[in-house]
């Protein structure tokens, strides 16, 4: 089969949002498919075409006060301002794709990417369209203007009109699957949890001790996530377990970096910065425990939980919210749980983890039948 894949987030950009589309492409190629990707940037191991985006990586400074122009963009550009990039990507796909695709794949966020599926079906009517959704659109929107009741009602109708031609929907969990299936009720819809690759090499930390690890971003991934509960819990835990170190691997906002530097235990916290996927997986696999945070109102934990579970290492939730129940229901405060961590040795349980080669074999099998 031949696949044309349009995605706003893709390597060499480093983020969880770039990782899943990349593994989609690699997995389909491993299953014998021809793949062509249209994205802001393209790594050397993927066939595709680059359509530059002015903000390939998210800005790390504090969000500025919105100007009149910003409000006008939010009001006039539907479903989000990235629709301008999507329109350029549509034109590029028509011109650059070397084959007539059997399947057009679009992956969100941003939700505007799905306008490409609808437009390219008109260009290649013999093709089929599959959607991959990583976040809610309107049930729990990151774009706060979608909370306006009028905007929400109108955009729901907009989503139904845009997505109705889709043949297949894949989503990272059942809640997101159900939302998108409501917009395209005739499409085959199934959950495809975040899938992971296996770490190849161990990581060697600079100092001996008990190593707690968080990989990924905080507010840059979800504006409602705060680093503060983790810093406070770690400071308290260190008073009871002086062997602890905290390692933060990923892109942080400037104010989050300043919060780390201002911590009373800053000398025990390592800011590792943005690291390649292989390094991130090695850091996770070498940790003594892994830390997961989510926004208090989040219905489910973030996708990195699957990566964590693939290591077999203990996973400790930090912060408030019902999402914690999907990690564990163990007693004790966050600080007490962190303080109780000791050096981890041996192999942990990885049953129930979906690895990407298995996931893509399942996807390819599903798409062949539709």
What report would you give on this structure?
The protein has helices at 16-30, 68-76, 83-96, 114-123, 149-163, 174-183, 228-240, 254-262, 277-286, 304-311, 334-339, 356-369; strands at residues 2-7, 34-39, 48-50, 103-108, 128-133, 168-171, 188-191, 210-215, 244-249, 269-273, 289-293, 315-318. The strands form 2 sheets. A 7-stranded parallel beta sheet has the order 3-2-1-4-5-6-7, with helices on both faces. Strands 10-9-8-11-12 form a 5-stranded parallel beta sheet, with helices on both faces. It has 12 helices and 12 strands. The protein is globular, with a radius of gyration of 21 Å. With 370 residues, it is α/β, with parallel strands linked by helices. The chain folds into 2 domains: 2-195 and 355-369, Glycogen Phosphorylase B (Rossmann fold, 3-Layer(aba) Sandwich); 210-339, Rossmann fold (3-Layer(aba) Sandwich). Helix content is 36%, strand content 16%. The model has no long low-confidence stretch (mean pLDDT 91).
Average per-residue pLDDT, rounded, comes to: 91
CATH topology of the largest domain: Rossmann fold
Basic shape: globular
Q: Any low-confidence stretches, pLDDT <50, length ≥5?
A: none
Side by side, the strands of the main sheet go 3-2-1-4-5-6-7
Question: Key features?
Answer:
370 residues; alpha/beta; 7-stranded parallel beta sheet; 5-stranded parallel beta sheet; 12 helices
Secondary structure: elements and pairs:
Blueprint: E1 2-7, H1 16-30, E2 34-39, E3 48-50, H2 68-76, H3 83-96, E4 103-108, H4 114-123, E5 128-133, H5 149-163, E6 168-171, H6 174-183, E7 188-191, E8 210-215, H7 228-240, E9 244-249, H8 254-262, E10 269-273, H9 277-286, E11 289-293, H10 304-311, E12 315-318, H11 334-339, H12 356-369
Parallel strand pairs: 1-2, 1-4, 2-3, 4-5, 5-6, 6-7, 8-9, 8-11, 9-10, 11-12
Helix pairs in contact: 1-12, 3-4, 9-10
């Amino acid at each position: 089969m031949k696949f044309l894949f349009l995605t706003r987030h893709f390597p060499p950009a480093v983020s969880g949002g770039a990782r899943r589309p990349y593994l989609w492409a690699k997995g389909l190629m491993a299953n014998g498919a021809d793949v062509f990707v249209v994205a802001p940037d393209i790594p050397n191991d993927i066939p595709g075409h680059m359509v530059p985006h002015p903000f390939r990586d998210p800005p790390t400074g504090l969000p500025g006060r919105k100007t009149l122009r910003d409000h006008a963009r939010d009001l006039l550009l539907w479903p989000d301002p990235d629709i301008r990039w999507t329109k350029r990507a549509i034109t590029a796909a028509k011109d650059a794709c070397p084959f007539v695709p059997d399947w057009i794949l679009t992956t969100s966020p941003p939700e505007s990417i799905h306008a490409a599926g609808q437009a390219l079906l008109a260009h290649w009517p013999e093709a089929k369209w599959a959607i991959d959704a990583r976040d809610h659109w309107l049930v729990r929107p990151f774009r706060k203007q979608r909370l306006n009741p009028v905007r929400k009602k109108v955009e729901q109708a907009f989503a139904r009109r845009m997505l109705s031609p889709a043949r297949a929907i894949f989503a990272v969990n059942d809640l997101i699957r159900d939302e998108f299936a409501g917009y395209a009720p005739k499409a085959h819809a199934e959950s495809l949890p975040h899938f992971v690759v296996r770490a190849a090499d161990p990581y060697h930390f600079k100092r001996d001790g008990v190593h707690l690890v968080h990989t990924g971003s905080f507010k840059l991934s979800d504006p409602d996530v705060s680093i503060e509960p983790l810093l406070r819990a770690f400071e308290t835990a260190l008073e009871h377990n002086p062997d602890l170190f905290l390692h933060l691997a990923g892109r942080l906002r400037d104010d989050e970096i300043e919060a780390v530097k201002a911590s009373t235990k800053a000398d025990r916290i390592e800011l590792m910065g943005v690291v390649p996927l292989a390094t991130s997986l090695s850091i996770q696999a070498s940790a003594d425990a892994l830390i997961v945070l989510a926004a208090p109102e989040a219905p489910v934990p973030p996708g990195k939980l699957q990566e964590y579970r693939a290591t077999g290492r203990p996973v400790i939730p930090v912060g408030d919210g019902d999402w914690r129940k999907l990690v564990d229901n163990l007693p004790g405060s966050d600080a007490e749980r962190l303080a109780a961590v000791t050096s981890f040795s041996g192999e942990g349980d990885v049953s129930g983890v979906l690895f990407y080669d298995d996931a893509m074999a399942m996807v390819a099998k599903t798409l062949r039948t539709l």
